[in-house]
Amino acid sequence: MTDKQPEQLLHLVFGGELDRVDEVTFKDLDNLDVVGMYPDYSQAYDAWKGAAQKSVDNAHMRYFIVHLHRLLDPSTQEKPETA
User: Is 43 a domain residue?
Assistant: First the structure.
């Protein structure tokens, strides 16, 4: 019997201070906060939420979740339902 590992759907959580709140242009790329890599969306979301809550007083600070698995294997993207 083989133990099947859960599928890894890699996610990157990172953030930084934006030049303007209405655009996604970082003020200083050398100071991006790379929170980490996570094997699924749930863990990435928890990390994103924690990082975002720590910076709530800075309106220009934004954190993002990047679905790396979609870049590495486009077949993992959600398919729209057909009627």
Answer: no
60: DSSP letter? T
Task: Show the domain range for 18.
Answer: 7-22+29-34+59-65
- CA 80 – CA 24 distance, rounded (Å): 27
- What's the predicted TM-score (pTM) here? 0.78
Hey, what are 36's tokens?
């980490």
* Helix ranges, 5-75 (H): 41-54, 68-72
Does 18 reside within a domain?
yes
- Widest CA span of the chain, in angstroms? 55
Tokens describing residue 80: 């729209």
Q: Can you tell me the distance from the alpha carbon of 6 to that of 38, in angstroms, rounded to the nearest whole number?
A: 13
Low-confidence ranges of the chain (pLDDT < 50): 80-81, 83
Question: Would you say residue 83 lies in a domain?
Answer: no
